[in-house]
Amino acid sequence: MKPSISMIAALLFGCATLHAAPIPRDRLPSNCPSPSEATQFYRLFQNDIEHYLYTTSSDVSTRALDAGYEFDGVAARVFQTAQASTVPLHHVFNRATQDHFYTTDVRARDAVLAGTPSTLDEGVAAHVFTRRICGGVPLYRLYNHGTGAHFYTTDEGEREKALMDDGYDNPAIAGFVLAK
Predict the structure, then answer these.
(1) What are the domain boundaries of the chain?
(2) Do residues 167 and 147 touch, judged by C-beta distance below 8 A?
């Protein structure tokens, strides 16, 4: 069966939008929140146990630094409160493994909470997009079976290094965020 012209056009358009540059503010759909409302999504790293924590909160950052985490930069820009076209990014913490898990999928959050008695629902970490709109970029989620840690990044090079060199796999997209 020959592919139709519309199928080929759809595939080409889909591939082109995967690596598209951020949309200029004056061309964003009207349901996009203002990027000036976004805040930094900090990444902290606990070297002893090789785990990452992501937060918009300076209080959480301070407590994490006091608990032995190190500041590891800004992972992305996100919204602290619900905005047009955003959904909650849920945070679940596993006390036994010290792992932080983030998802927009309530069923995934609930499954993780039900799967281990040592997990805690830490609430909403931020608000993000569920698809590539409003200039959003993928927030990749990777998992390391050796350390039991999840790792999140918007950087393609960092994602590839984690997959190739650092023992991470199971690549997924946790949500779409604004670039740092």
Answers:
(1) 37-177
(2) yes
pLDDT (tens digit, 9 = 90+) per residue, 52-61? 999 999 999 9
Whether the Cβ atoms of residue 104 and residue 174 lie closer than 8 Å to each other = yes
Cα dihedral: 156, 125, 169, 137 (round 10): -20
- Please give, one letter per residue, the 3-state secondary structure of the chain: CCCCHHHHHHHHHHHHHHCCCCCCHHHCCCCCCCHHHCEEEEEEEECCCCEEEEECCHHHHHHHHHCCCEEEEEEEEEECCCCCCCEEEEEEEECCCCEEEEECCHHHHHHHHHHCCCEEEEEEEEEEECCCCCCCEEEEEEEECCCCEEEEECCHHHHHHHHHHCCEEEEEEEEEEECC
Task: Write the Ramachandran bin of 73: left for phi over 0, alpha for psi from -120 to 50, otherwise beta.
Answer: left
Tens of pLDDT, residue by residue over 79-118, are 999 999 999 999 999 999 889 999 999 999 999 999 888 9
pTM, 2 dp: 0.80
- Summarize pLDDT for 146-170 with one digit per residue, the tens: 888 999 999 999 999 999 999 999 8
